[in-house]
Specification:
Layout (H helix, E strand, L loop, with lengths): L2 E3 L12 H10 L5 H22 L4 E3 L7 H8 L16 H9 L23 E3 L6 E3 L2 E2 L11 H11 L4 E6 L1 H7 L1 E2 L9 H17 L4 E5 L9 H17 L4 E5 L9 H6 L4 E5 L7 H7 L5 E7 L9 H15 L4 E5 L18 H4 L5 H16 L5 H15 L6 H10 L10 H12 L16 H11 L5 H22 L16 H4 L3 E4 L6 E4 L2 E3 L3 E7 L6 H8 L8 E4 L1 H6 L2 E2 L5 H22 L3 E5 L14 H16 L7 E6 L8 H7 L3 E4 L10 H5 L5 E4 L12 H12 L20 H31 L1
Parallel strand pairs: 1-12, 2-6, 5-7, 6-8, 8-9, 9-10, 10-11, 11-12, 16-18, 17-19, 19-20, 20-21, 21-22
Antiparallel strand pairs: 3-4, 13-16, 14-15
Helix pairs in contact: 1-2, 7-8, 11-13, 11-14, 17-18, 22-23, 23-24, 26-27
The chain binds the ligand Nc1nc2c(c(=O)[nH]1)N[C@@H](CNc1ccc(C(=O)N[C@@H](CCC(=O)N[C@@H](CCC(=O)N[C@@H](CCC(=O)O)C(=O)O)C(=O)O)C(=O)O)cc1)CN2, methionine (MET) and zinc ion.
The site of zinc ion has 6 residues, from loops.
């Protein structure tokens, strides 16, 4: 038997986000294709060399992507919808980007081809399992044809080979690819398996011919609840793939959770190796080790690919040793739990972090070190001092005074067992609030952010670097905020926002002001395409030393007589979009954040805020991957929202916002949040998502989005009017608000201004009709 080390994927964006800047510059027409390709090639080479230098035995290739690896797979197998004008053969990069970002109708912005004259919308984007990474949803139809457009894994393998690096190509497995796809008709993507397999067979046999000895086939769908048909698909698929290239070792990679009831399927497949996530599925280790066929190589996903803490390598080494002892002749591989795509690249770049904190952390580069160290421990019998050192570091973190705040723990204790609820039920609050605000029917508002223009980001970046003084930066933000308020009044919005110009990100901004949080300067993680986030690091008990948003709310409200919403990010979203300490249950950390937000809500109300919005964008998307775990999660998530939002008087209106609005399964939880107003993303579903609210007889007020902010398109008055009529078929007029799908930070002002003016006009038109109808009824 041998013990080897492996990596499953390395971040693509670059230490200094080189890929982001190369992409955005190419899209803007400022640099040419050759420059983009060159940046990409350099990044790949750097990453392969780094992994080799670190001493990783099995280095992945084809983990790079210009935008997203699911999109890459769709393009590779020829699943390109006709609107993008592809006519067979290799898919041009601009067609690829059109699928990712849409193409404008004027024929030059994204793509210079005449067939794009009408413009094409981007594919839908959704989150990758329970991460904050988003993939493009492949669109398939019943008579879908697949063909190999170009063997990308092969190209990547050969590119690494010319650098003298022998890699293991990664591909997204056929079953997961189909389960992540959507059908445009009534068909089920999984039924296309037999059509798809020949393409995979060809990819693999070409790889084998080129001298590849092993391929990592990602099948994370194996950690989900699967239908019988999907389970059967695995047997069918892997029988065909194993036959295609008998000399190629297929390593089936699963991650993000335990295999659970899918373990038997996985163990019966004709593959050479199985990778599984030990960080999120630890309890099944013994089961796997005992039941795995004797020849099966086990790849142990034992270094956390989803979090940033240095590991206790001593403890991990013991776990590995136990597996090794039981496995006899079979190979064992030491690996991260999943691709390192979800962690930042290098802690060494964080020179501003204090040494104590820095030594608690391991980003992608440091995780490679940890894996290599474990490998050497088993193969070269390296002395154990580094292992013990890591254990001491971990111990130091857990016992550090910086991690524990008795005041916070005391407050949490007091909270225990007390149900958090508003003073009166919604039916009593609603008339009080209506009397207070006297808003017209169908009140108009927006979700919070306005465009983060280059100017805004430049000013913040200069301020961060000390090139723009605090006073000048604040003055600049005041100017932006004031202009946004004047403009909102001008076009006639009823409920205003301050625009969030002072915020770098809706989560990071709060993290930076809370204690128990650390944040990075260059700890970027890809969220979608070229867009990245720097998730805050929650290392200790959370408290809010000072008000976080009151100053901006006050400034903005002082400029207008219309109500201006206080704007906060909710506890569940802050938790889900941060790196969370691993020494407390997540729900406990969430309750701590909830208390901090509760304090902020209190201060906003005291300062005079009459409406306070608490965004829970990530509450729905944070749902556990397995249905059996939903109830527990929803119970504490809703409780945390209520801790944050319930300590206000009846006349204070609590808003919330959620972008991902598939609520059918969690309607009870949405209702239990008891927000006075909820705004949601609905425009693309043509309001169908509202049916869940109707079925449940949901009484509170709702703002279903009528403007798809993910597209640069400017919706017309008629279009939004139609959406409002569809909403009125489902909701009462007293319930309905008018707003976009989400915040407008990624849009440009020349898109936002006409779009919102149209939105206000659509509401006004409808009000007029309501008034006329009302008069007619009155005069009869
Ligand atoms: N955390 C989080 N997750 C989320 C969302 C979200 O808003 N936040 N929204 C959903 C979609 N995901 C998104 C993720 C990122 C962005 C986004 O716009 N990201 C920005 C960065 C935002 C940011 O942190 N901005 C900072 C830093 C900006 C920056 O790059 N500054 C330059 C200099 C800029 C200049 O001089 O022009 C630098 O530091 O080098 C700031 O404004 O302060 C980007 O990639 O461009 C949008 C949506 C789901 N998940
Ligand atoms: C991703 S949800 C965004 C909510 C936030 N208030 C904004 O408007 O940007
Ligand atoms: Zn949103």
């Amino acid at each position: 038997m041998t013990i080897k080390t492996a990596n499953l994927g390395f971040p693509r964006i670059g230490r200094h986000r080189e890929l982001k800047f190369a992409l955005e510059s190419y899209w803007a027409g400022k640099t040419d294709r050759a420059a983009l390709l060159e940046t990409a090639r350099t990044l790949r080479a750097d990453h392969w060399r780094l992994q080799r230098e670190k001493g990783i035995d099995i280095i992945p290739s084809n983990d790079f992507s210009f935008y997203d690896h699911v999109l890459d797979t769709a393009v590779m197998v020829g699943a390109v919808p006709p609107v993008y004008g592809w006519r067979g053969g290799p898919v041009d990069l601009d067609v690829y980007f059109a699928m990712a970002r849409g193409s404008s109708g004027n024929g030059h912005a994204d793509c210079g081809h005449a067939h794009h004259a009408a413009g094409a919308a981007a594919l839908e984007m959704t989150k990758w399992f329970d991460t904050n990474y988003h993939y493009m949803v492949p669109e398939l139809k019943a008579d879908q044809r697949f063909e190999l457009t170009s063997n990308r894994p092969l190209e990547a393998f050969l590119e690494a080979k010319t650098l003298g690096i022998h890699t293991r190509p990664v591909i997204l497995g056929p079953v997961t690819f189909l389960t992540l796809s959507k059908a445009l008709d009534d068909s089920a993507p999984i039924d296309l398996l037999e059509r798809l397999l020949p393409v995979y067979v060809r990819i693999l046999s070409e790889l084998a011919d080129a001298g590849v000895d092993s391929v990592q086939v990602d099948e994370p769908a194996l950690v989900l609840d699967l239908s019988d048909k999907e389970r059967q698909a695995f047997a069918l698929a892997y029988k065909a793939l194993a036959k295609a290239a008998p000399n190629l070792k297929l390593v089936l990679a699963t991650y993000f959770g335990p295999l659970g009831d899918n373990l038997d399927i996985a163990l019966q497949l004709p593959v050479a190796g199985l990778h599984f996530d030990l960080v999120r599925g630890g309890s099944t280790l013994e089961d796997i080790v005992r039941r795995a066929p004797a020849h099966l190589a086990l790849s142990l996903g034992i270094i956390d690919g989803r979090n940033i803490w240095r590991s206790d390598l001593q403890a991990i080494a013991s776990r590995i040793a136990a597996v090794v002892a039981l496995r006899g002749e079979a190979d064992v591989v030491i690996a991260p739990s999943c691709s390192l795509l979800h962690v930042p690249i290098d802690i060494e770049l964080e020179t501003a972090l204090d040494d104590e904190l820095r030594c608690w952390l391991a980003f992608a580069t440091q995780k490679l070190d940890e894996i290599a160290l474990l490998g050497r421990h088993f193969t070269a019998g390296d002395d154990a001092s580094s292992l013990t050192a890591s254990q001491q570091t971990m111990h130091a973190r857990l016992t550090s005074v910086r991690v524990h705040d008795p005041l916070v723990q005391g407050r949490l204790h007091e909270l225990r067992g007390i149900e958090q609820r508003r003073q009166s039920p919604f039916s009593a609050r609603q008339p009080i609030q209506h009397r207070r605000f006297k808003l017209p029917a169908l009140p108009t508002t927006t979700i919070g952010s306005f465009p983060q223009t280059a100017e805004v980001r430049k000013a913040r970046s200069m301020h961060d670097k000390g090139e723009l003084s605090y006073v000048d930066y604040e003055a600049f933000l005041e100017k932006e905020t004031a202009a946004a308020i004047r403009w909102q009044e001008e076009i006639g919005l009823d409920v205003l926002v301050h625009g969030e110009f002072e915020r770098n990100d809706m989560v990071q901004y709060f993290g930076e002001q809370l204690s128990g949080f650390a944040f990075t300067k260059l700890g970027w993680v890809q969220s979608y395409g070229s867009r990245c986030v720097r998730p805050p690091i929650i290392y200790g008990d959370v408290a809010r030393p000072n008000p976080m948003t009151v100053r901006w709310w006050k400034y903005a409200q002082s400029m207008t007589d219309r109500p201006l919403k206080g704007m906060l990010t909710g506890p569940v979203t802050i938790l889900n979009w941060s790196f969370v300490r691993d020494d407390l249950p997540r729900e406990t950390v969430c309750r701590q954040i909830a208390l901090a937000i509760r304090d902020e809500v209190h201060d906003l109300e005291e300062a005079g805020a009459a409406m306070i919005q608490i965004d829970e964008a990530a509450l729905r998307e944070g749902l556990p991957l397995r249905r059996a775990d939903w109830a527990h999660y929803l119970a504490w998530a809703v409780e945390c929202f209520r801790i944050s939002s319930s300590d206000v008087s009846d006349e204070t209106q609590i808003h919330t916002h959620m972008c991902y609005s598939q609520f059918n399964d969690i309607m009870e939880a949405i209702a239990a949040m008891d927000a006075d107003v909820i705004s949601i993303e609905t425009s693309r579903s043509r309001m169908e998502l509202l049916d869940a609210f109707v079925e449940r007889d949901y009484p509170n007020e709702i703002g279903p989005g009528v403007y798809d902010i993910h597209s640069p398109r400017i919706p017309s008055i008629e279009e939004m009017g139609t959406l409002l009529s569809l909403a009125r078929e489902r909701l009462t007029d007293g319930q309905l608000w008018v707003n976009p799908d989400c915040g407008l930070k990624t849009r440009k002002w020349d898109e936002v201004k006409p779009a919102l003016a149209n939105m206000v006009a659509a509401a006004a038109k409808l009000r007029l009709e309501l008034a006329r109808n009302g008069q007619r009824t009155a005069s009869v």
